[in-house]
Specification:
Layout (H helix, E strand, L loop, with lengths): L5 E4 L2 E4 L14 H16 L4 E10 L8 E10 L3 E10 L2 E12 L31 E5 L35 E6 L11 H8 L3 H6 L7 E3 L1 E6 L7 E12 L2 E10 L2 E12 L7
Helix pairs in contact: 1-2
């Protein structure tokens, strides 16, 4: 079983090597701090009748791999919705801020509304697993099942960018996959449907913002929109959009489970001019 991302020491969360960052030594990944905010928000405010309809993580600075303090606050606690904020501090500095809007489950309107169609993708257990990632079981979905025309632009070369992170998903046509999160966010606490998304949502950045040769944008946030919690362990990520100009990018993925679509993930990013050593 994979090592948890954090262990506890009183009210502090102590990072393990499982959450170490890509861009710089001695830092944590965006996935680690995002997952930690999701864990604490659900622990303090979640409930079976609440749907985490919007989960937005702002990555304000590179988080250092040192013990972290997390605080939560109910910005609004009403009959229909709750708005919760979590803040991660390292050495007294704010490094990550997240908000989550919970909406109470209610009766569905009687008049039907058009809904996003189901994803025609093979079951993950019929697909070969990638060996590149240690935090999740990743199963690429063949390009023949793509619903969006994703064509790589001409030009470019590996020497002009940052090292690649996607492996078999480097070509845009292939950027759709099933993912199953492995391990725990905090030692002793199994993943829940919501924290599975909090733990994997940051992967929407390399999925949307990588060229064929590597990733030259670093994400400043990601925002998940859900109409329901995922069912089961498998999450489907489908690249549906990337736009960038003058070093500013936005991207979008559709999010699925084995029962159908569950929402979207939107992610903003800035060009990473300083190159990371290979």
């Amino acid at each position: 079983m994979s090592q948890p991302m954090f262990e506890t020491d009183g009210d502090l969360f102590v990072p393990t090597r499982a959450g170490r960052g890509y861009w710089q030594e001695g830092t944590l990944t965006g996935a680690a701090v995002a997952a930690l905010t999701g864990f604490v928000i659900e622990r303090d405010f979640g409930g079976p009748e609440l749907v985490p309809t919007r989960f937005c993580v702002d990555m304000l600075r590179m988080p250092p791999a040192i013990p972290l303090r997390v605080t939560t606050e109910a910005i609004h606690d009403g009959r229909r919705l709750k708005l919760i904020e979590a803040r991660i501090h390292a050495d007294g500095k704010l490094v990550t801020r997240a908000t989550c809007q919970f909406v109470h489950r209610a009766q569905q309107p009687e008049n039907p509304t058009w809904q996003t169609p189901a994803w025609d993708a093979p079951h993950p257990e019929t697909l070969p697993a990638m060996t590149r990632f240690s935090r999740w079981d990743a199963r690429p979905i063949p390009a023949a099942h793509a619903r969006v025309a994703r064509i790589a632009p001409l030009g470019g070369e590996a020497a002009r960018g940052n090292p690649p992170v996607l492996g078999d998903l480097a070509e845009p046509e292939t950027r759709q996959m099933w993912m199953k999160a492995l391990g725990e966010i905090v030692a002793g606490h199994p993943l829940t449907p919501f924290t599975q998304i909090a733990m994997t949502g940051d992967f929407s950045s390399p999925l949307t913002h990588s060229s064929r040769f590597g990733i030259d944008f670093v994400n400043t946030d990601f925002t998940v929109y859900l109409h329901r919690q995922p069912q089961g362990e498998w999450l489907g990520y489908e690249l549906t959009g990337h736009l960038s100009e003058a070093g500013v990018a936005v991207g979008e993925c559709r999010l699925h489970d084995l029962s159908g679509p569950i929402g979207t993930i939107n992610v903003a990013a800035a060009a990473q001019v300083r190159k990371r050593p290979a």
